[in-house]
């Protein structure tokens, strides 16, 4: 498994490289992750001791720290895409899986905070699947 990972935001203004291995890949269903992802959960990879290098656009990265919590989110100020965050308190780089341009090297290791799972996402296995936008 490669320990070099590359990613970017939707508008392409911000690009980064992460050196390190991912130990965990959590699908977090907490209400804070629902709010900041705009979906039923956030898909975050954790690289303990990882080294994050901004290749371009670092001045466009904004980091929001939710008051009285460890919940932090970094994002591109131009397009709003989620970007990696340095979690100094746990010596870790948190990487939203969707911002990686290189392949995600591990499968999710756990669903967390499932007691807060969005009700509309409890049983999606019976929902029809399409390869593109249905007509």
UniProtKB/TrEMBL annotation:
Domain of life: Bacteria
Record carries keyword Heme: no
Cited InterPro entries: CENP-V/GFA (IPR006913), Mss4-like_sf (IPR011057)
Keywords: Lyase, Metal-binding, Zinc
GO molecular function: carbon-sulfur lyase activity; metal ion binding
Domain CENP-V/GFA: 5-108
Short name of any one Pfam family annotated for the protein: GFA
Record-stated family: Belongs to the Gfa family.
Matching PANTHER family: CENP-V_GFA DOMAIN-CONTAINING PROTEIN-RELATED, GFA DOMAIN-CONTAINING PROTEIN
Entry protein name: GFA family protein
Species of provenance: Vibrio casei
